[in-house]
């Protein structure tokens, strides 16, 4: 699928007993599974991995928002080298 090749897969994670399964939400067919020692571990990892970057967008500054800070740091480093 073109979207997955350009932007990467959008994996969703689910726990089924001691097995964690994942699949691409876009329907390209990418999927997998991993078995853990306990149901508790499986549930914990599935919850941790089943988050998207967009969920934290309000708490993190986007790249464009950090651009002025990055430019200032680059200028400072450049002046220190001279």
Structure in words:
This protein has one domain (2-81). The protein contains three helices and three strands; from the N terminus they run αβββαα. The N and C termini lie far apart (49 Å). A three-stranded antiparallel β-sheet has the order 1-2-3, covered by helices on one side. It is of the alpha+beta class and 82 residues long.
Shape: elongated
Strand content: 15-25%
Mean pLDDT: 84
Poorly predicted ranges (pLDDT <50, ≥5 residues)?
Answer: none
Instruction: Give the SSE string.
Output: HEEEHH
Compute the CA-based radius of gyration: 20 Å
Helix content: 40-55%
| Beta strands, count | 3
Strand order of the largest sheet: 1-2-3
> What is the CA-CA span between the terminal residues?
49 Å
User: How many domains, in number, for the residues?
Assistant: 1
Largest sheet: 3 strands, antiparallel
The total count of helices amounts to 3
The secondary structure category is alpha+beta
Concise account of the structure shown:
The chain is an alpha+beta fold.
Question: What descriptive keywords fit this protein?
Answer:
3 strands, 82 residues, elongated, three-stranded antiparallel β-sheet, 3 helices, alpha+beta
């Amino acid at each position: 699928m073109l979207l997955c090749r350009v932007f990467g897969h959008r994996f969703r994670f689910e726990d089924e007993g001691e097995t964690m399964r994942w699949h691409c939400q876009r329907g390209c067919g990418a999927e997998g599974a991993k078995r853990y020692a306990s149901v508790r571990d499986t549930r914990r990892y599935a919850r941790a991995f089943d988050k998207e970057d967009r969920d934290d967008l309000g708490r993190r500054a986007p790249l464009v928002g950090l651009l002025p800070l990055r430019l200032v740091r680059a200028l400072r480093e450049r002046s220190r080298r001279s």
